[in-house]
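Working notes for the structural subgroup meeting. M.R. asked for a predicted model of this chain before we commit to crystallization trials. I am recording the input and output together here so anyone reviewing the notebook later can reproduce the run.

Input as submitted:
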Amino acid sequence: MSKYNAKKVIVTEDGTLFTEWIIEKYNLDVTGISFDSIKEGEYYQLLLQQRKYGEIKDFECHPKFVLQEKPKITYIADFLVTELDDSQRVVDIKGVETSTFRVKLKLFQAKYPTLPIDILVKKRGEFIPLAQYKKEKSARKRAVNALKKRVDEGRKQNENQTYRNQKRGH
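Returned structure, recorded in token form:
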């Protein structure tokens, strides 16, 4: 287990994903790249497919960026993807967005303003931008709150009607 209860995984060259606890339980000899979560490992599998089918040129795992020299602050992203036109983008898979990450993101964007960064979450079986997920989540919350408000208003109307009927002797 890594932080935030994410299960560490190892993905082999052929794209097979093993959780660390399975490797330890069965004493397997597995060679591959380690990731801090299953979602990161699954995105690595996706990148392997995209490279195989010519959708991207290449990618690098765990690229390191120096954000500040003194005191030294580094940011290790999940992936650096090279597109077919040789442009690059950084990809970071998030389960939990921490305050430390938000600070590093601002430093990264200030130091590397031309290098786009995609912050993705996996929801309903697909990787979507964190910003889109946040919008959907707040829209769901607003809808639930509006529904609760309508229910509460309906209850108050029923209570008032019951009270009036009781006063009239019905």
